[in-house]
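I would love for you to help me understand the pair of lines that follows before we discuss the fold together.
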Amino acid sequence: MAGPTIRLDPADNVVVARHDIAAGTEIPEEGITALADIPAGHKLATRALRRGEPVLKYATTIGFSGADLPPGSYLHAHNVMVDAVQKDYRFGQDYRAADLLPPGARATFDGYARADGRVGTRNTIGIFITVNCAATVARKIAAYFDEERMEDYKNVDAVVPFIHAQGCGMEQTGEPIDLLRRTLKGYIQHPNIAGALIVGLGCERNNLERFFEATALETGTQLRSLRMQSVGGTAEAVAQGKAMVREMLAEANRARRTPQSAEHITVGLQCGGSDGFSGLSANPALGRAVDRLVQNGGTAILSETPELYGIEHTLTARARDETVGRAFLERIDWWLGYTDGRDVQMQGTVGPGNQAGGLANIIEKSLGGAKKGGSTGIEAVYRYAEPVTARGLVIMDTPGFDPVAATGQIAGGANLVCFTTGRGSCFGSYPAPTIKLASNTPMYERMRGDMDINCGAVIDGTRTLDQMGDEIFAEILAVASGRATRSEALGVGADEFAPWPIGVTG
């Protein structure tokens, strides 16, 4: 039977409670007695700590002791202080190239081969808007193609409206509107999108003319556009939009799944509602699956830059070279300036749910979050929604807010998302499906309708991380081949399209 605590590294001076531990409980394997009630997923000291001494988890400093503390003390946000940590960036010194399998030995899945050589895991028609003023038209067009009408198009997964709140009342030039257009273009050209209709109002700053000029997209059989003010308003735009989608559906329905190499899978790595177990089970288990994907020639995108802060030196050491490492640090520096003086977690304090789950601060959260990236080298760094062209593990700069982060990854080419959660996120996404991984068994049992895999078996002591990684990789291949995830079955994902709303609104 597994003991009451989990030790992560011989050098650590903390262990994590496997389940609730009452004050006075002896922990023989550590030679200590709990001096307070320790909730599941929280930490206790394994030896005496002096005030100001580093607190070590995974042999990494997650903060400093706020007082002189005896062995068995409860360690959390009240007595683990965030302070400056001396960082050795060691650019590229820990870089490890993937041990690629030969092409003939790589895993396969059944996907949709596109004309440009990319492969889709889904076959979706998307209704996009240049401005929020066209949102209702897009929703009405998509809603018309309900389950009954889609019976004639068995090879098309869905008609989905991608709604956002931007497109006007914003700067006409510069990063905000460039970022919006880059995100929309990434979705429109996504391998999971078999056809796209772009609806505009007509007078907005991001109007159709400017959008097509900026993105160099060209209309054709499977890319249509519709201007509401030119066709006579809402009702006529909806009617014409329906007709356009019917024509695209007929073409999209001709697509068929065929066997494809796993090298065509690109996974966006996400975590949300993290707890003290996330960095012990779901995240490192996903990291094992990422190592397998990369070995098979695939790609994984590690993101949520503010939630990599504090342990960025461990990632620069894994970068392919100093140029890649410094590109990542440049984004960290941008975020430090952007959040300076603001009440956000990058300044140290994580959210209430994270704290309740056992995470003391942003460094501890980042340490666990980075485990999603596995152990191979970091090949490239991308800005938000930029097309990901490198193979292997890469970083994309995104906010920590899950819908915004995943939207950037999908725009960059992720044709599948893996999302770990400890508290119980109900996230989903289109057109790339989301696999949700629970960090602990109690939450998984409570939220079975939303969770795909229970990584809590690692905490329970019934599965190893490698076994869990194998299960996740097998699920990635199955979902890429068409198996519906829990969020897809629930219809969750359309409203989670959320381009990064950076910049001035006025």
In short: Residues 5-81 form a domain with the Archaeosine Trna-guanine Transglycosylase; Chain: A, domain 4 fold (CATH 2.30.130.110). The CA atoms of residues 49 and 249 lie 65 Å apart. The radius of gyration is 24 Å. DSSP finds 15 helices and 23 strands in the chain.
